[in-house]
């Protein structure tokens, strides 16, 4: 299978966020010695090159379907990326110190696309709850947007959480897949195939909170939610200008 | 460039957000249209021939790209490095075309990250709590607002 290398190279060199970078020792595939390489983690992709200043990439590791593990090694501060299916690889690394080792492990654990997708759905649910809670207070002057068109993604298997469970339960234990970073990304992708099973053609894609086909712009969304606030501020400032005399009279006189 | 091919092939076999036979052209101008099985898995587009082979022909990373409507049933994916570098996909219907565009845009890791940061910021603003704290990932670089600074530790509520 070919991969479009130009796209990968461009992505690595672009100014998209770098989630972590630094030197690590990587165990060779054929040679068993560890070689020092500069690693750049962006999203679910771990790029590596000989030196930080090099333009050419030596390689990339796509971080989906693997677990991050501490490993037995003659090298200190070692850890590995493990694909457990037969015939698939284990990448072994060694960091320069314990802090670096821990930091890399933590960063790699939260790197997969599946993990981010779960987080986004959880956040979306919490957001709706937060907005809903706000609108139930009678003193609030503006009306919350209508959420009737939003369909949360529904998780079917027992290894995952329904969005309603995520929404109502506040305990961290309610969602094992999002639990602190001991849970591997493998859990999300391997043990929960129904998470992404879309046999029913009418099921909305996992992250589709607003059901709009076509342009989806969450900046617009942000604008919409802020609109009522802006209108209120505009209204209040108008009142302020027009009623300057009234304001003076309202000042408390301590004299 | 080395990459973890076998693991990526395994990924291509995962349940997909979207898969269909589409006419595909590119990335060079003048490439002919070929019917391909196109499958979207996480932020990759896997391209296979119509005969069921063991692995796809190719994998395309869907980051730093521009997805555009070319005409009623055609969309393109252009990569920002070169203007001429474009993959063009022909769908069967307008609706299918719209659905593909929508799915590809939303599949990008960077798109999802922005949404996460948006929700995190809003939840913090509305509730005074950082929703990522319970998962122990508040400090992770990947979840910070775009200016790189973490959320303030003093909770605040917007006066409404």
From TrEMBL, chain A:
CDD domains for the chain: PH_Ses
Domain of life (superkingdom): Eukaryota
Gene Ontology terms: cellular component: clathrin-coated vesicle; cytosol; early endosome; recycling endosome; trans-Golgi network
Family matches, as InterPro entries: Boi1/Boi2-like, PH-like_dom_sf, PH_domain
Subcellular location: Early endosome; Recycling endosome; Golgi apparatus, trans-Golgi network; Cytoplasmic vesicle, Clathrin-coated vesicle
Coiled coil as UniProt keyword: yes
Predominant place of localization: other
Keyword flag Repeat: no
Domain PH: 17-113
Keywords: Coiled coil, Cytoplasmic vesicle, Endosome, Golgi apparatus, Phosphoprotein
An example Gene Ontology biological process: retrograde transport, endosome to Golgi
SUPFAM superfamilies: PH domain-like
Name of a matching Pfam family: PH
Similarity field: Belongs to the sesquipedalian family.
Function: Plays a role in endocytic trafficking. Required for receptor recycling from endosomes, both to the trans-Golgi network and the plasma membrane.
SUBUNIT field: Forms homodimers and heterodimers with PHETA1. Interacts with OCRL and INPP5B.
Protein name as annotated: Sesquipedalian
Organism: Oreochromis aureus (Israeli tilapia)
UniProtKB/TrEMBL annotation, chain B:
Gene3D superfamilies: Pleckstrin-homology domain (PH domain)/Phosphotyrosine-binding domain (PTB) (2.30.29.30)
Domain of life per record: Eukaryota
GO BP annotation list: endosome organization; receptor recycling; retrograde transport, endosome to Golgi
InterPro entries: Boi1/Boi2-like, PH-like_dom_sf, PH_domain
Gene Ontology CC annotations of this record: cytosol; early endosome; recycling endosome; trans-Golgi network
Pfam families for this protein: PH
Designated name of the protein: Pleckstrin homology domain-containing family J member 1
Species in which this protein is naturally found: Oreochromis aureus (Israeli tilapia)
Classification lineage: Eukaryota, Metazoa, Chordata, Craniata, Vertebrata
